[in-house]
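Marked as duplicate of an earlier ticket. Keeping the data here for the record.
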Amino acid sequence: MQPITLIIFKIIFFSFTSHYVTVCMIKRKEVTIYDLANKLNISVATVSRALQNDTVVSKKTKKKISDLAEEMGYRSNHFARNLRQQQTNTIGVIVHELNSNFITCVLAGIEKVTTEAGYDLIIAHSSESQKKEAANANNLFHKRVDGLIASLSLDTTDLDHFKCFVNKGVPVMFFDRVEQDGNNTVVIIDNAKCGYVATKHLIEQGCTRIAHVTSSLKRNVYSQRYKGYQDALFDSGIPFDESNLIVNDLSEKAGIDSAMEILRMKPLPDGVFITNDFVAAVCMRTLKERGIRIPEDIAIVGFNNDAIGKLIEPPLTTINYPGIDMGEIAARNLINHLKGISNIHHTNTIIVRSELIVRKSSLRKETRLP
């Protein structure tokens, strides 16, 4: 049995800590310009002008107000002020994933331009779900973003969830994964041309049985790269065989599964065009583990120019997809529209440069690398 004094101490200590936690959890009242004005016995208007660095207020008074604001923990309410001006100085961004070197580069490009222009970003990701994409769009609409930049999820079938922005006059720009129906402003690369160039390179290396590993053909990026692949085969007199087409997601498992499916093909392909560098790297690793020599047995071309392409052995031939450029171009065009410098509705499609980067994974012929 515990001594009575120890029991009393525990009760008192518990009571004290519970009270302390309760007090700490109570949100402190926000300091306002009225509090500052009352403390200094000056007008609210003077405080407001001083905090906005108005030259009407003397330097001495500004310093007094600034010092007190810092002491009392005053925070300027930019959000309320911007709402009065019918703007929030925020740009919404919806992406289909965050675990992507390409998307990271796009976001870096967007952030560079928006920061320089004095805009904040609110970033949301759909996890490849139209339902989540629609919820994100609704959330950003109610946060009153001044503009929206978005890349669609794999299963997005319509753009109804973006109509609220259009109806309210809030500009929307789509990048990478888009709907090219002529009604939206989009920033893309020429995916069909890139698919053609990638496949043509394999043909020039002597490949005649070329498999194609891609993702949902509902999305423009993959359907157009697929078309480029088909066109390159046709122009080179190589029959198209649908059994050489593998459609999967962009996961590590997809890379492994694709490699196993390639190994089951009869005859074995001598070239593979894969529309994602990460999937290509996993696929290469799996093939090599099962005795396939790259590029001697199978030459491989990827897509995106992700950092992983330089790290694997042999280094991966790929299409350079400049995410930073795409982010900067999308953000700059959107902000110029918001500032009245240009009108994004006058240009439906903006095409960003892209190019083939040749590395050892596809070189079956003697070619000197730069």
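See parent ticket for discussion. The CA atoms of residues 36 and 355 lie 59 Å apart.
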